[in-house]
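Ex. 9. Protein: Small ribosomal subunit protein uS15m.
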Amino acid sequence: MNVYNISRLSYKIATQQIVRNYAFKSDLKIKWVRPEKIPSIDPRKSGDCAKLPPVDPKELIREFRKSKELETADQTVRSLFELGSNPRYLTTNHYRDAFIKEVQRHPLDYGSMESKLARMTATIRCFQEHMAQHPRDKRIKVQLKELIEKRKKFLKYLRRWDYRRFEWILEKLDLIYKPPPAKFHWITRKESLKKLTDIHCEKLRKAKLDEYRKILEEQQIPFLEDAIKKLEFVRQEQLDLDIPVTVTLEHIDDYKKRLNELKELREETKLKNENELL
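Predicted structure tokens for Small ribosomal subunit protein uS15m:
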């Protein structure tokens, strides 16, 4: 290729208008936002549906509830043995006892699978409340993560060997068990945009089909009325010209019946829409 042809080709490329025959995803106004990452200690991720019930701060510690001396003791002395005046771990122990009593098999059952799960659930929910108030407490955060994973292992074991008890314990403790996925899959922007584009195109297709269906439905009554007139004209012409009649009265009556049914249906739909608006 000589210099003249090269310069001519360069001039042609520079002067011609570049036309794009395809669309980018940005042209469809589709916006993708990365899903919010939920921490493993969050109740939405751990499966704890319910919160801890409120506890009376004036309630006595478990070891002193049956003390007869405290019943007649001064209020100042009694306050020393109340949950509100003592460390937090005593309130946690109170919740543990309450949860265990809900699921234990007998009054001395503290070692069954149900009792262990109830004890762990009470501790987890106490730790979650603590983390909501003190999100920088790393020690409690690590303990909470380990305890949630341990409870998941216990639930997985119970689900495998006694499914009825597994369902019962989930209902009693108000838990949701989320098994690990069979195959891990990263959420990527490219794949998510493909799915959003498919959804967007499907919505456009459905909207256009619905619009075209409405146009056809609006043309149904005029089409039937015109068809009845033409059939009656054809029949009359065949009778006047004394040729074989191909359009029967039953055929015309069938069209009239369909027209009346369609008009009644439109009237019912119109009245129904007016009543809904009212």
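Check your answer against this statement. The first helix runs from residue 3 to 15.
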